[in-house]
Design brief:
Elements lengths: L9 H18 L5 H17 L10 H23 L3 H23 L6 H29 L12
Helix pairs in contact: 1-3, 1-4, 1-5, 4-5
Length: 155
Amino acid sequence: MIRPFAPSRPAYLRAVRTSAWYDLVVTAGFATPWTYALVHDALSKLGDGLGLGALPAPEPMEILFANLMGSVVVVWALLRIVEPLPVHGLFDGVARTLFASWQAYALAHGAPRWLWLFFVVEVAFGVVQLVPWWRARRTDLVDSPAGQPIGTADR
C-alpha cells in the first residue's frame, strides 16, 4: 500500500505541479510532426551554434517516437497540473529516473552534449519528488510499533 508513506506538505504538491509545467513547456513541441520539425530544427541549430552538437536529419520512425513521447508526456503533465497528488510525484519521480537513465545511455553513446541540460533537470526533479517518499517511508518504518504491519498502527 502506497498511502501510509505519502508526503503531504503543500510544498511537495507545488513541486509536482512545477515539474508538470516544465514537462508541458519542454515536450509540447514533440507532440505533432509539424511542431517536432520546428523543435528539431531549433535544437539542432542551437546545439551547432554553441558547439554542443547538431541533430541528424529526422527519420519517420524517430518522428513517430518523438510524437508518441510528446503526446503521453503532455497528457501526464496536464493531469499533474490539474490534480497534483502525492502519488503523482512518486510515479513522476520514477519516470524521471527512467528518462535520466536513457539520457545517460544516449550521452555515453555519442548524443549531442546539450542533452546534459535536460539530464540535469530530470535528475533534479526526480530527487525532489522521490526523496520525500524515501524520508516518509523511513520515518513511518521507525515509528511503527514492533510487530504491526506498516499502516495499521492507527486502525
